[in-house]
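Good morning C.,

I know you're traveling, so I'll keep this short. The sequence:
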Amino acid sequence: MRKYEIMYIIRPSLEQEARDALIGELNAILTDRGAEELIVDEWGMRELAYEIADLKKGYYVVIDVLTTPEATAEFDRVIKIKEDVLRHIIISREEK
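The tokens, ready to paste straight into the viewer:
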């Protein structure tokens, strides 16, 4: 198990219920694969540093999680397919 920080930005036009369902679906990818210490921090709607697909705002979500590299690989695969996710990044927080 390794510690990861995951951040993703959801399209601002997505309804609250759909956004909650998307966040739950993405969290389930990690928890179904044995993730521990899943801490989800929803930053909410914020200005983007630069426009993405003509959008100036996005809904930010940050996850701190203790999980396996296989779980993060599956998370990465699935999140790339989701059209409502504008950007994402997965960072390993393990000390070398």
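Safe travels,
E.
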